[in-house]
């Protein structure tokens, strides 16, 4: 199993729209957030310079997007989405562990937000993230690396 990341490009947008549709629609609809292609594109394009395509054996299977604010010494895990066909293989855990290792070098915090109905929050809790703020439809979670 050869897992790799590559920089996303505009050519990846159709894949990313399909991925977002498969991985996020249910949870967005659960909390009343729009799931139009236009809304999906806005979210995909947010921090697009940091978007990495997750590939397994050179096939795109996901998205990993994280940013670092040097002034705050803070990583933000903007998006992580793995095609449902490949979930359960510890790919998300592997990617997040890589970010935790990177953040540990500078003793950074890592933050993320997750929709309350998204079962990924269980993974984040297992990995040591804690809920630091509750909003109407999502949790803000952080981990001190």
TrEMBL record:
Family matches, as InterPro entries: Acyl_CoA_acyltransferase (IPR016181), GNAT_dom (IPR000182)
PROSITE patterns noted in UniProt: GNAT
Domain N-acetyltransferase: 3-145
CDD domains with a match to the protein in the record: NAT_SF (cd04301)
Pfam family, one: Acetyltransf_1
Any GO molecular function: acyltransferase activity, transferring groups other than amino-acyl groups
Coiled-coil stretches noted in the UniProt entry, renumbered to this chain: none
Signal peptide (UniProt feature, chain positions): none
Name of this protein: GNAT family N-acetyltransferase
Organism the protein comes from: Vibrio cyclitrophicus ZF270
């Amino acid at each position: 199993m050869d897992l790799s990341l590559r920089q996303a490009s505009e050519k990846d947008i159709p894949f990313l729209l399909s991925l977002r549709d498969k991985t996020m629609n249910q949870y967005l609809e659960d909390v009343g957030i729009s799931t139009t292609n236009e809304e999906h594109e806005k979210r995909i394009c947010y921090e697009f310079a940091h978007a990495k395509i997750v590939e397994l054996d050179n096939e795109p299977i996901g998205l990993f997007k994280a940013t670092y604010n040097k002034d705050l010494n803070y990583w933000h895990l903007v998006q992580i989405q793995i095609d449902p066909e490949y979930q359960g293989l510890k790919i998300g855990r592997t990617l997040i562990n890589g970010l935790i290792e990177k953040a540990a070098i500078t003793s950074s915090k890592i933050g993320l937000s997750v929709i309350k109905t998204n079962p990924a929050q269980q993974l984040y809790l297992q990995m040591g993230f804690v809920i630091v703020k509750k909003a109407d439809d999502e949790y803000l979670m952080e981990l001190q690396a």
